[in-house]
Amino acid sequence: MTDDVSTSAQVPHDAARAQLLAEVAALPNLPGVYRYFDAQDAVLYVGKARDLKKRVSSYFQKNHGGTRIGHMITKIARLQTTVVRSEAEALLLENNLIKTLAPRYNILFRDDKSYPYLKIVSGLFPRVAYYRGSVDQKHRYFGPFPSAWAVKESIQMIQKVFRLRTCEDTVFANRTRPCLLYQIKRCSGPCVNLVSADDYAHDVNHAERFLVGEQQELMDDLQAQMMAYAQALKFEQAAEIRNQIGALSRVLHQQSVEDNTGVTTKDADILAVKVEGGRACVNLAMVRGGRHLGDRPYFPKHVDEVMDFGPEDDEAAVPASVSPEVQVLEAFIAQHYLDGGVPPLLVLSHAVDKTLIEALSLQSGIKVTAQHQPREPRRAWLDMCIKGAQLKLAQLLAEEGSQQARTRALVEALDLAVENMDAFRIECFDISHTAGESTQASCVVFEGHKMQSAQYRRYNIEGITGGDDYAAMRQVLTRRYAKLAEAASRGEARLPDLVLVDGGRGQVSMAREVFEELGIDLGRIVGVEKGEGRKVGLEELVFADGRPKVYLGRDSAALMLVAQIRDEAHRFAITGMRARRASVRTGGSKLEDIAGIGPKKRAKLLQRFGGVRGVGNASVEDLQSVDGISRELAEEIYRVLH
Fold first, then answer.
1. Using an 8 Å Cβ cutoff, are 461 and 477 in contact?
2. Left, alpha or beta for 445 (phi > 0: left; psi -120 to 50: alpha)?
3. Is 183 inside any structural domain?
4. CB-CB contact of 338 with 95 (8 Å)
5. Are residues 433 and 579 in the same domain?
6. pLDDT for 388
7. Any idea what the CATH number is for the domain that residue 36 is in?
8. How far apart are the C-alpha atoms of 514 and 499, rounded to whole Å?
9. pLDDT given at position 261
10. pLDDT tens across 523-553, in order?
11. Domain with 600 in it
């Protein structure tokens, strides 16, 4: 790659635009990537081109009117380009920049590559486990799977057919008699030597062959093995193999994907896209080892902003005639697969640029084939994937429409002056404890017509009389808004448009005192008071600024939204309080008191040994086997817990 070339301007005035056009005219006729920036130096758009000069010039040589692309062009204050050696290299750089910079006028997919795997843990008697994370060479991994449910279903199938163990090593090493799984024929009982290491290894090998798609070969081998036992008059062993063949045959449905040449493809991804109402859905269905594992929907951002943008065609002026579906699908393929993990076959609902598929092959080191007009059974699977995309997008639009209506109804019911309904923000607080023990406050956030779980917060309440909810509310509101109010006064932060407290006049009065001390508008505070008989649907809203109480009505969309947010705050507070109380009562906090044990190592220990009691029963060697636990730290844990 060459060095970046930049041109800057403080404001998009005539002189700056003339300078920008001069820089565009000086661009080379080479492949590369370009970035547009606004006057605040925020990135607007990232694109690639076979010919930088032709492509970038096409933005400025046409009158795009009031289109979205025209709106973007009026904001361009600076451009930056990078010359590369090939189109494939441009494609890689473009999508790396899109992921890093998240431009407003590019289609963006959330970077979620944390797929679960089925893991066979190495050892004398390997176990089957659910796994999510980076893979290594020590164990065998199968997948990825589209969901945790798909992994667990496969594990259950392996238990039924091959009877492999799933217990942790610490449990396995300390068994004196077989567990319930042996009794119901889901495990062969290796923990108490009810199966030999050789026979168990055969079962592991059979399970691995099944998972990689060698189902028919496996069935043939089992048939031959059964006949050999029968001829040797070992009828008991032959019956066991017969039962295994029967169980295996029951789970083999649609076991492979075949094209019209009869070539079997054991690993494939099926991708279908649907665009409607300014939103899009890409539905990804996975086939691994010849088995259909299920699907997973993806909903990109900024779809509505980029519908006027065309392909990177140097000869064509933008906008060009590429359907929104193809734009979305190409964006997904590039952003999802260029980091790796692409299977050898992609079955697509729409044809995409061949350059993209060639870049995938180059990047992954395997030959990637794309097919958009498949025959049976790929056709049936693609049809299912398309139907899934349609249903999931319809569900999203219905949910968003409902939530937007609820937001609008609440704003109108409270007579609030809201300029941008999409940015309307509500924060709701709830207090939870058990007889004054382990008091916690929760804060949940509603913004953009949906709950924003990543912004939820819990507050441990200390230094108050147990059960004093008013003091707890004072403490949490002060902690939440003291610094925020100061930053908002300087224009560096934004206060919520509405603050809901779960309670009546008492809680609202406490909130009023805090807001008066902090200089925050009292009109933001609303209390949710239980109605007559504390019945759901009879709640009333209590205001801190002196307005009379409001009853919205049982069927009010505004009340539905208030109830949804209030219930979520209560749920979040209850779960946090219970977890804190359980930690105190079981001594779980002892682990965190040990130097060198933080939340992550504590979680690994509790997960490996099934709780604090299991950690206490573990030996130093067992503790040392946990990732991140050194010999010295294992000895310290053992000392503290004994």
1. no
2. beta
3. no
4. yes
5. yes
6. 92
7. 3.40.1440.10
8. 12
9. 35
10. 889 988 876 544 555 678 888 888 888 887 7
11. 587-640
